[in-house]
Amino acid sequence: MDFVAASYSINDERARKVDFASPYLLAHQDVLVRADDDSIKQPSDLNDKKLCSVTGSTSAQNVKTKLAPDAQLQEYGGYSECLTGLENGVVDAVTTDDSILAGYASQSEFKDRFKLGGFKMSNENYGIGVQKGSDLKDRIDTALEKMVADGSWDAAVEKNFGPAGYRNEPAPKIGVVVK
After folding, report:
1. 101 pLDDT band (50/70/90 cuts)?
2. If you average pLDDT over every residue of the chain, what do you get?
3. Predicted pLDDT of residue 138
4. What are the angstrom distances between the C-alpha of 144 and each of 7, 59, 67, 117, 134?
5. Residues 6+ apart with CB under 8 A from 72
């Protein structure tokens, strides 16, 4: 494997093992709720609500320990199970990175059924992991700079997240991690 390009957040633990090109996207932890639910307007509104995430998720633990300690955490094996629970009213909200949630909300079967909370509960700098010392890092950074300059970065974000009403951050400065 030459590189890892996914929702791969740059953090100290991972940076000890791989070099990171970019970041290429600044995401934030958020929640997804049903479109007709106006009861969750801020993170503390998750108290006494059923909050879903995948088993072992740091996003769910972040909500429980820092933002809404009385949230009723429901841990499922995958986000598709959380979405089914949200759709059926078994859970009140799903939490993970906003870019992932926007991707789900953008799918045609969920059109106009879900909305993002817009809470920005953390900064998640997505990077591309490469082997330590690899020249791929500089080549990927150059390609990302070109995508930002020629507008293809903005076009890709709009195509993949726009249908969910996702309000992305501007393209990050290549090599600058936002804390």
Report:
1. very high
2. 92
3. 95
4. 16, 27, 34, 29, 17
5. 48, 49, 50, 51
